[in-house]
Design a protein that fits this description.
- Two copies of one chain form a homodimer.
- With 204 residues, chain A is mainly α.
- The first copy, chain A, has ten helices and no strands.
- Chain A has two domains: 55 residues, Homeodomain-like (Arc Repressor Mutant, subunit A), CATH 1.10.10; 136 residues, Tetracycline Repressor, domain 2, CATH 1.10.357.10.
- At the A-B interface, helix 1, helix 6, helix 7, helix 8 and helix 9 of A face helix 1, helix 6, helix 7, helix 8 and helix 9 of B.
- The structure holds a DNA duplex (30 and 30 nucleotides).
Chain lengths: 204, 204
DNA sequence: CTTTGATTTGACCAACTGGTCAAACTCACG
DNA sequence: CGTGAGTTTGACCAGTTGGTCAAATCAAAG
């Protein structure tokens, strides 16, 4: 393994290449379905060479996940209590949709984990995510109580946003097959904006 | 392998036990992540005994999938052109939600496949599912043109229904962690009914 | 009880997998 | 250039996996 000093030029390049390759492989075959050899080949390295940079397959996976989770929650963190409620929510939906378009592999990697019961993520979800969700659910509830958006179960509202936006990344294979030539991301932003606008705009 | 005759009592029992066990194992570890031994043990058989009833791991998987897909599409098939549009759609949503509650393993098995690019399902999706979706999208479009429900991209409308309902099965681990004691299925039916009612009810 | 086909199993195999290691090679720097 | 740290690799290993097979056991019909 590389010493505990500042990473060399080669270390930086290779560790980045490995993580990039691992994202590709893990997101399309899951943890168990991926092999170290696959990742090594995708990164342009031999297997022992890869294991010179990471102590194990699981270590690669964990580092990938740690990096992922942070950026994954950013859009929700950015939900601003001071903003105009409906516009804040619509903007959040669009940010999440954007992420599904720009980082589908990250979304699928996460989905893969959760679908299989989140064996490697349970702690993180129970800790960080739970706190954030609790906080934002309160915020949404406040907006509803003030009559600034229609009432709806705040947590289910969050679930629905995640579900609808990530669907375009996670079920990409199905969506694209059924849409034919049309790019799903052409109409999706409009569709979701309409959905949440009609659902949340107060009757006035 | 059992001969090509009518299945014996033991054959019926064991094949059923194997498929039941395989559903359990495949849905929680994916195809690649599951082992024949795991399935055999879960079915109460030895590995060679299991392979006496099915020629290979893939054969078990395929039989499982074939059976699944049919029942999976039934709720959509039942969307009735003669019914009252909004109520038909709301009933469809509730049927799908019901299936997520009653058959979460089936939902996760399907999700697992699609997330990983549907390598073993591409043909079926392109054929059967595509025809059905095309037909029902037309039906929805007709209802919209007649002003009986609000306008929205019909295929995206279907995607959203699948996404929102299956989310409760596929992301069960996450949803339950974040909901604490509260059963997600308590509020979900109400939430989804409200969502689609607000979205689709024409302004009149 | 015997016979015949259905069922079950222990022993085995070849391929694959994650990971190790000593030896070789490369690079930066004095 | 030389040298020592950083890098790469072929050979190897032990455990796992999907699958086979001959022999043993069981069930049911005569």
């Amino acid at each position: 393994m590389p010493a505990d000093r500042a990473p060399t030029r080669i270390q930086k390049k290779n560790r980045a290449a490995i993580l990039e390759a691992a994202l590709d492989v893990f997101s399309s075959h899951g943890f168990r379905g991926s092999t170290v050899d696959q990742i090594a080949k995708a990164a342009g390295l031999s297997k022992p060479n890869l294991l010179y940079y990471f102590p194990s397959k699981e270590a690669i996976f964990n580092e990938l996940m740690a990096g992922l989770l942070d950026t994954w929650l950013d859009p929700l963190r950015a939900l601003d209590p001071e903003g105009e409620p409906l516009e804040e929510i619509l903007a959040y939906v669009q940010r999440k949709l954007q992420m599904s378009r720009d980082f589908p592999r990250e979304s699928r990697l996460y989905a893969n984990e959760i679908v299989q019961g989140a064996p490697r993520l349970h702690d993180v979800i129970a800790a960080d995510l739970n706190v954030l969700v609790e906080e934002k659910a309160q915020l949404l509830q406040g907006w509803m109580d003030a009559g600034r958006i229609n009432r709806a179960h705040p947590k289910h509202l969050l679930f629905s946003i995640w579900s609808l936006t990530q669907h375009y990344a996670d079920f990409d294979a199905q969506v694209r097959t059924l849409m034919g030539d049309e790019d799903p991301f052409d109409a999706a932003p409009q569709y979701l904006e309409t959905l949440y606008r009609r659902m949340l705009t107060p009757k006035s």
